[in-house]
Amino acid sequence: MAVIVSNKKAAMSRNLVLLFCLLLIISFAEGKQLGSIGFGGLKAAPRAPRCQKVYGAKLGDTCDGIIQKFKLNASHFSEINPNLNRDSIFVGQWLCIVGTAK
Q1: Which residue of 29, 62, 63, 70 pairs with 86 in a disulfide if CB–CB is 3.0 to 4.6 A?
Q2: Helical H runs in the chain?
Q3: Confidence band, pLDDT 50/70/90 cuts, at residue 41
Q4: What Cα–Cα distance (Å) separates residue 5 from each residue in 19, 39, 71?
Q5: Is the pTM of this model over 0.85?
Q6: What's the CA gap between 26 and 74, in Å, rounded?
Q7: Per-residue pLDDT at 36 exceeds 90
Q8: Half-sphere exposure (CA, 13 Å, Cβ side) for 92?
Q9: Contacts of 90 (CB under 8 A, 6+ apart)
């Protein structure tokens, strides 16, 4: 009878370890921390801009022209389009014209 009890305890311990490992893997995959486990020294990445309205660039469009066309603030336009190369936009490129930077 003692063998069965110890096997149940071993199985329970093994299941707890497997559950902990699964939670740890999910935590790393999701980039979140479980309690004090994880990379505490790393800072979270800044939040990405949120765009409510986009404009598809047309032939002849420039960033300055789009800023004037939609009466936008140039610095805000740059903040809501952080990966934009202002010197070379292309036809069909989606540009955020209404959004929040943070």
Answers
A1: 63
A2: 2-30, 63-69, 74-80
A3: low
A4: 21, 39, 75
A5: no
A6: 41
A7: no
A8: 0
A9: 57
Half-sphere exposure of 1 (CA within 13 A, CB side): 0
Residue 65 structure tokens: 């022209």
For 35, half-sphere exposure in the C-beta direction (CA atoms, 13 angstrom radius) is 4
Task: List, in order of start, the domains of the chain with CATH numbers.
Answer: 1-43 (no CATH), 50-100 (3.10.350.10)
d(CA 40, CA 22): 20
Length of the chain (residues): 102
